[in-house]
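Please check this:
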Amino acid sequence: MPGYGAVDGGCRMAGPADTDISGLIARAEEFIRLCCSENAVDRPPADRMAEIRHEIRQSGSYVHTARELAFGARVAWRNSSRCIGRLYWPSLVVRDLRHVRTAEGIHRECVEHLRLAYNGGRIRPVISVFAADGPDGAGPRIHNPQLIRYAGYRGPGGRITGDPATTDLTDRVRALGWPGGPGTRFDVLPLLVHTPTEPPRLFDLPPDAVREVPLRHPDHDWFAELGLRWYALPVISDMVLEIGGIRYGAAPFNGWYMGTEIGARNLVDQQRYDLLPEIADRMALDRSTDRTLWKDRALVELNVAVLWSFQQSGVTITDHHTESERFLRHLRREEKAGRTVPADWSWIVPPVSGGVTPVFHRYYDDHESSPAFLPPPATGRCPVTGHAPATGGVRNGPDPQPPVSVGANTGDSRDRIARP
């Protein structure tokens, strides 16, 4: 599909990869040792490191083998301290697309990613890795935070139609030539793709690649009248995949949704769709005081609607209780393998009924790890879901006692994307 035509300005390519030769060699050695320790090597580690050192000294960078790339991408997910859904990290499908260099080619492969990952509703975790940054500058970038996002149109008096989180991006793509959609609350934005050899270009997503779920409620017929829907597949597209000192700035990836991401954040946050007052009024709840718990009651019914609607549409989704138990299984599995699990309490605890989930009642050891998914500048979002922390990132645990590490013998050992 052709783009809208390239327009200069408005997008500045990010800086180059790690150009410090000794630092890059050290990062590469650390990664190759990790590959060796987990039997993810194609040749003797000493031989491979000799190749890498020579390549870095000659060119200022090095190229991962296909096996190294696949292993690094999966471990980056495993290391994502803000993601509760890591149990299935070994199942991540890695698409090596480093040879695709044009904006049109990147768009084409992103569309294929959406189709492959949707999988008839049985969502599978997929990452598509495009060319890496190099010593001379950045590689390609996808400027959308997710491949599928809804527009946010600014109106008179500060009124916003659609998703307030995307107003800046909506302004940007309209300045680059996008005419806008029908003007609903759920207009899908075009992709904004930038390569080192091309100015920013816009591409529409074909309708068959954008799978959406209309939201209904099993007990309230009026819920369908709200006209709500959400896209089935959360594909994070603006984060950087770092493996052994090499950075891949265009590496869209997905898991599947946990219901609260839609029903307690996207549709509920005051800076997003802010739907709780409307739902509470439909339920005839008393909103005169917070003591009636009208927010809580409306929130639960919205989450019931999200889970039920995805299930009725045959689209993979998980609930926060199930995912909390899976995270404990992930912790136990990793501890058995002799690995520590980085985890940020303020992100792992779900935004609904946190205190009745097992992930609430323990501490975690949060440490920087590599490979990793790195957020774009000035953001702090979950590497798989793209969300801010459920608690605002303020709290560090259920009480002020000193934290214990995940691997400690505490008697409570503990997996949209988004989430596998």
Q: What stands out?
A: The CA atoms of residues 152 and 162 lie 4 Å apart.
